[in-house]
Amino acid sequence: MQLLLVVQYAAILALQLTPINANPAPNAKVNALVSRAAGTRNDPHIVDMPCTDMEDVCEADCIAILCHGKDPVMQKLAGTADAKKKQKEDNYRKSGAYFVPFDEPLDMQKKRGISVPSGLIPGAPVFNSAEETTYESTQQGGTNCIIFPVPRDQQTLQGGNMQNQFGRVDEALRNIPDGQFFKQRFSFLNSDTPHCLALQQIPPDTSICHKEKKNKWGFDMKKFAFVMDQAAKNPRTFTNLFGGYKRKRSDGTYEPIEEAQEVQDE
Q: Is the Signal keyword given for this protein (predicted)?
């Protein structure tokens, strides 16, 4: 995946101009539409995404933006109900989430080039559900969407009785008119969301993308960023975007380091 482009950097910078709620509130709900805006790319709506009890999902989304240049601005699908349903299904397939790659037998995961977190601490959830960091209910969904393995219950949390990520996202976006643009505001951040905290810095602190940052479950989410290969294969394969950890040189560039280790800021 390409490094952050200037235009993406500008979009990310704009994302930071909202306050952080430092103390998580129990059972925080989505504040569907938290700002009035024109709904254009240059003046998108802001959707509040509380990260309480869904830190792993938020971290996946933040890593995609901060470390892989995912555009934080997305456009909600428009058209008839049937047309939108078809597009969502198409995006779901093209992102690779359709194949439930993180919940397949290990031999199939190996064939696809997929891996999931292992060696987790006792009591850790199962990371077997694909988080589409560019939502299937948007124009940008589908092809080249970055997916991460996350706990299924975190995806369903904010959807209430809805049974999948698609429902959670729809609840968050229900007050945004079809065809209009929006961006997420990650709130209720804490020590379990270091990449989201780095994304909120002005400017965003991309140095964390080169460091090992294990979560409370004992692994670094950055190691599990995947994009489905577009070449038709049987089975469909995926590319892992993790490029290894790096150390900052005196001239500001980075050099690879051989072993995973915590690289401190200089």
A: yes
